[in-house]
User: Which sequence fits this backbone?
């Protein structure tokens, strides 16, 4: 059986570790990775302020999303390989959708690029608590086959 490949959004990971409900979710997710039911990577490198915490240590040990794949999309003149610009072009629409649906913070370009790398690598789920990303999840899923869920939802429905 192939492992389910998840990318955990590390943008607000330090904050999530401080919230009891999210911490329990992260413990369950880390256990699934440790038991080899799930292959987990972080969206970006995570350096914790509290490295003595066992959960923090476990999450810090996860590899970060390999972004060199994104660099391979560029042609020698710096433009994107044809066909790959659609995801990036969709960013302006995603910004509008998130704003119109009440996102207090705008969708970050850096998060969009990490989501694109996640997509390029064919990973199964992008797990996040980012409201702007979750607000555009249905359209991104329909348009690009990228599944964006909260870690809670992923674990609740046993997608692994």
Assistant:
């Amino acid at each position: 059986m192939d492992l389910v490949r998840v990318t955990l959004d590390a943008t607000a990971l330090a904050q999530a570790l401080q919230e009891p409900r999210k911490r329990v979710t992260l413990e369950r997710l880390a256990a699934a990775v440790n038991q080899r039911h799930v292959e987990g990577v972080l969206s970006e490198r995570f350096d914790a302020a509290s490295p003595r915490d066992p959960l923090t240590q476990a999450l810090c040990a996860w590899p970060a999303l390999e972004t060199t794949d994104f660099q391979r999309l560029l042609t020698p003149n710096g433009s994107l390989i044809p066909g790959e610009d659609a995801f990036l072009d969709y960013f302006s629409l995603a910004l509008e959708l998130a704003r119109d649906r009440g996102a207090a913070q705008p969708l970050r370009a850096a998060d969009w690029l990490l989501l694109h790398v996640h997509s390029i690598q064919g990973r199964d789920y992008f797990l996040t608590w980012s409201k702007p990303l979750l607000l555009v999840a249905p359209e991104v899923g329909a348009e690009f086959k990228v599944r964006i869920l909260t870690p809670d939802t992923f674990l609740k429905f046993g997608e692994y």
